[in-house]
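fold-stage: in
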Amino acid sequence: MSSRSALIVWGGWDGHAPEQTATLFREILEAEGFAVTVSDTLDAFLTNDLNGLNLIVPIWTMGEITGDQRSAVTTAVAEHGVGLAGCHGGMCDSFRNDTEWQFMTGGQWVSHPGNDGMKYQVEIKRDNPHQITEGLPDFEVVSEQYYLHVDPGINVLAVTHFPLAGVDGPHVQNACAMPQVWTKMYGKGKVFYNALGHQPDVLMAETPRELMRRGFLWATK
């Protein structure tokens, strides 16, 4: 019997293929010995004993969450040390009206200039060594390039650079290194986020998949 348990809750906007992403994440976690529960309703945050879990993995783009549903998650993480880990819009564009969710996760999507199909580089922060990124190379992605509003308290592990050549928009005069992979603490709980994952195939590539695997393990209570 596994000594570690995880809850994956998927749903929201279908464009991010949440069910397929949930299947991938379940596969990764079960390979690491987790007992995994998968649900397609936010009521799973109320019907499961979140405080007894080791890890919560939300995969829910947009939508609305009730105060009770969200409080169950924030209490589990902040007060009981349950880990939280996720990716892309499934964690940092989940509930746009819920600022406490954003406070917990460390960031909020605001744009993806050029939309899908952008070719860009994800650079590991060599000046900030961490067990999640140790030994991993920089890598190229063809997907959405997430522009996020981020918590200044996050620990940035990888970035991508804006603007991309040939991509116009109101951001182009504001060159920056945008956080793409980070960790943070929320009370007693560890939080991991990876901005990649517009479609599951992006996460199936070797380095993004390894980032998720290590991020899950790092965040686990």
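fold-stage: in (second)
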Amino acid sequence: MKRLLSIAAIVVLMAALFFVVQPARGDVDQRIQALEDELARLKGEQMELKREATAAAAALPAFSYRPGSGILMEAADKSWSLRTHLRLHTWVVFEEGKDQVGRSRGEVAARRVRPTWYFCLNNCFYEAEIALDLDGFQTGSGHSSGADTTNGGILQRAVGYVHFENINPWLPTFYMGADGPADISSYRQGSSNISAQLEYDILSRNAGFNTGRFGTGMGLRWEDVPLRAIGIPGRMRASFTSARHGEGDDGKTSNTDRKSFSVHTQIQPFTQLKNKWLTGLGFSVGAWFCNFDDRASDNGCDELRIRDHGPFGRQDLFRTDSGLIGDGTHHAVTPSFRWAIGPYELRAHGYFQRYENSPIRGRDFLIAHQLNVWSPKGWLTGGVNDRGTFFVGYHFERTDVSCSSTSGSTCEVSNQFHRNRIILNEWDMWYVIQRGMNVGLALLWYDASNLRSGNGRAQENLLETNSTTSGKGGDWLDVILAWRWQF
């Protein structure tokens, strides 16, 4: 009986325990399920936040920097972009001649100080280029302040572009504004940032067209157009402008409705071939038609003036009387040639000009060599943008100018001679510190068949004489240490 009672008690106890534990176990399962549900919800929210963060990051503008091209800030969808860069060229100049007339030895020249901004919309279909010229040398705020209205301001570019080539590569870029680009030759210097040659040839730089820009105007240009569609395995670039070349700088008026025109084309017919002898071959030709108006206050072709490169105390080697130039069209034509193979580059350039209804004539030719001597890869390797490259250059140019009147008398403004022959030999050595930055040494040896006499003029300045005899020539050497940086 006692055993039965014990068994019954145990059964009752187990039953009670079962009824007590069962609800607890169900509550635990519910809690576990609730926790699993909460964890799944948090994971979903985390994934959503991650997707939103990724989308937000993708929508932020992208920033990039490339030495030589500057900083680019661009929207993710390319709806807009802003690029900025700085060109800084600093020279230490040692010029032969007297310091009292501006020749300088050991003085620092800020040859180029030009910050530039490019603003783009709609994947750069619309573009604005704004640049400042802060280096002086007859420009800059020091020459446009106060009551001085004869010189330009500090603009280097103020141009708007519409890139129709974004629709079709055969369509041009249209542009208009102030201080816009106007090409006439691709090979008269190469690039002021990376070419061994320090400046353009003397004639084209001094005879109105200068660096290849107009004061105010508009133009069309084609850049890097592939020609395979017409059976030529190469590329082409071309331009046409209707503008005020050499006048109307920084948006000023020339007070005339007569426009000037320039055309230019360059073809590299074999760039898509795998032939080292032909790939680097290129041809360029340009022409400038300057419509001279003797009623206007500013004309881009009102004289033929030849000066050395300076930059301090630039000397007049030849200058015509502007009264000899009447209404008409001034013509300048410049054929050029380039051939590059491996570490070597050859350029040839000519410039021929005449003034309608005027006895003034000018012509020059230039032949230039450039060689990559050494780089970290070894001898005769490297490039002008490759760190550690050492390259050299030499160019020869001869300029002939004349101004013979029908009566046989002189028509040069100093009234001493009517023609001049100017030769320039230039030797250059450069070392590439990094892409967009190099340092170098340039030796410029000039020789002129005639130097103008008189107080402070070239003959007294260079030959250390007080002679007033005309027709006497001479030679001189300028040495320039240069640092070029394209940020």
